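Bump. Still looking for Antitoxin VbhA domain-containing protein structure tokens.
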Amino acid sequence: MALSRSTVRNKTPDAATISDAERGRREAAARSARHSLRLEGLTLSAEAQALTERWVAGEITDAEAHAILLERAHARGRD
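Sorry for the wait, here they are.
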């Protein structure tokens, strides 16, 4: 079952619920992922970058980010 953006938004935590340490870990993970992509000659799409920024800020959880990415990938596959 795919999650709609509205469903995911309704379940998201308040950005203040993640600690500064968690935000730092997320920033480091995002930076590492971007670096890995660059090494492969790839870049994040604007859409993926925006989603990553929401995740780093604590607007969405790991599971929600994953669900959104899967939903978008499946939608592109149907086009």
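The helical segments are 5-11, 20-39, 46-57, 62-78.

Edit: fixed formatting.
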